[in-house]
Amino acid sequence: DSFSIKTADGTPILQVEGKLMSISGRKKVTDMGGNHLFDIVKEHLHIHTTFAIEDPQKQKLMEVKSSFKLFGSSATATFPFGAPNAHTLKMKGSIFDTSAEIIDETRGGSIAARIDRKLLSGKDIFFGQQTYAVQISPGYDQALIAAMCICLDEKNNEA
Predict the structure, then answer these.
(1) Following DSSP, what letter does each residue of 16-42 receive, concatenated?
(2) Rounded distance, CA 73 to CA 118, Å?
(3) Does residue 96 sit in helix, strand or coil?
(4) I need a labelling partner for 114 at 20 to 30 A (CA). Which of 7, 42, 75, 130 fits?
């Protein structure tokens, strides 16, 4: 369950290592120099699917929590987690989870990123890996948006 996050021109920027058969579904995210940036961990004692983004010392940096939506998917990311001035990003996906927007509620509803899932690519058919195209607005962290996309994908793969 390991993969690379790449720019539109194919340049790898992040490496994600997943542990098979892990109860927490822990995924380690590193930059291309091998520096450990954060882990994505599924938290189990919640009504809604919840992921924690933890720094290498296992301190929670961000929480991504899904919410019920009749058609499509929805999740909210809060960071820094537990801070009184926490930032909130909301993901809203389409009915067939082929696209989503990440809305910055802290900045008046501006679009932080757009996500498009490429359906039935060769990797999806033969290797079970989905391909996403993500457009990130200026001023937003690529690793943070990538973490949110990974959480959305993990949640959608549960269903």
Answers:
(1) EEEPTT-SS--EEEEETT--EEEEEEE
(2) 17
(3) coil
(4) 42
Residue in the structure block whose two tokens are 């962290």: 141
Instruction: Supply the CATH number for residue 86's domain.
Output: 2.40.160
16 backbone dihedrals φ, ψ, rounded to 5°: -120, 125
Report the distance separating Cα 64 and Cα 149, nearest Å: 10
d(CA 116, CA 145) in angstroms, rounded, equals 13
The per-residue pLDDT for 83 is 77
Total domain count, the chain:
1
Task: Give the whole-angstrom CA distance, residue 52 versus residue 56.
Answer: 12
Range of the domain at 98: 3-158
User: pTM for the whole thing?
Assistant: 0.83
